[in-house]
Here is the input.
Amino acid sequence: MGKTMAREAYLYRQVAVHSVQDYDGRVTIHPVPGQAYAPDLNVQCSRRLSDTSVYPLGTIFLVDAKLTDRLGGPQYLYVWHGDDIKALSRREAEVFLEAYRRVRL
Here is the structure.
C-alpha cells in the first residue's frame, strides 16, 4: 500500500482568490486585494478554478493556501488540487475580507 504524505496544516491559511484575465488572454488565479498577499501573486491550484465554462471570470473562491517557492524561484501560493472548491458570493467575500481585516488590527 502506498504512503501518502500528510499536509502540514499549520502552513496553510484561508485566502480569498479570484479568476482574472491576464494581458495575453489566459485566465489565472490571484489573491483578492486587501489580504496579506500581493494581488499579483501567482496561485497554483486546480485548473477547475479557471474554467470559465463552470465559473465566470471574476469568481471568488475561498482556498487553503501556503506561500512557497520552487527551488528558490519566485514565491507563489500553493493550493492542493484535490481540495473542495468553495465559490463565494460577493457578500460572503466581503464578510470574509472584513473578518480578516478585524483580526489584523
